[in-house]
Amino acid sequence: MGSKASVAILLSILFVFAIIFIPPLSTTYAEQSDETKESISNKLFEGKIVVFRVDRSSALETKESSKSMKNASILEIGGRYFVIGTAYVPDDPDYAEYQSMQDVNIGIAWEKVSEYQAFTDEQYISYLKWWKEHNEK
Fold first, then answer.
1. Is the four-CA dihedral 90, 48, 118, 83 of positive or negative sign?
2. Per-residue confidence of the chain (137 residues) as pLDDT tens digits?
3. How far apart, in whole angstroms, are the C-alpha atoms of residue 18 and residue 13?
4. Domain spans of the chain?
């Protein structure tokens, strides 16, 4: 009976240890994990012009549009993730009608993003040139 009592005491000590130490460890891990996720996403977009393909489909039709953004970062609001930043409009006569949107704060629900491309300023200029050449009617 002495060994059964020792086992019971040992299990009790392990149980108390688990109750006291495991929740703080998991909370710390979760906090680090969130900070790491935010840091990674912000480094992906830092100093870049980011073009997001946004799903605007309904039950009746499939539709996508593009949004260009600078200073993009991912933010959690109410349990949902959003990409937030400032609208970017190229200094190009073809985009003159959109100039009023330049530097407006915008956000996109992450679940609506189908893809993104992050460009340096030079890469973005090359991309626009390529896009115009391949999408002229």
1. negative
2. 566 666 666 666 655 544 455 554 444 434 545 565 566 666 788 899 999 999 988 888 888 888 999 999 998 889 899 999 999 988 888 888 888 888 899 999 999 999 999 999 899 989 888 888 887 65
3. 9
4. 1-44, 46-137
| In contact, 110 and 74? CB cutoff 8 Å | yes
Long-range contacts of 102-108 (CB under 8 A, 24+ apart): 106/67, 106/69, 107/75, 107/82, 107/83, 108/52, 108/54, 108/67, 108/82, 108/83
Question: Cβ of 125: how many Cβ atoms within 10 Å?
Answer: 15
pTM above the 0.90 mark?
no
CB neighbour list of residue 92: distance below 8 Å, 6 or more residues apart: 128
The contacts found for 37-42 with CB under 8 angstroms, 24 or more apart, are 37/74, 38/73, 38/74, 41/73, 41/74, 42/73, 42/74
CATH architecture of 46-137: Roll (2.30)
- The shares of helix, strand and coil residues in the chain, as percent rounded to the nearest 5, are 50, 30, 20
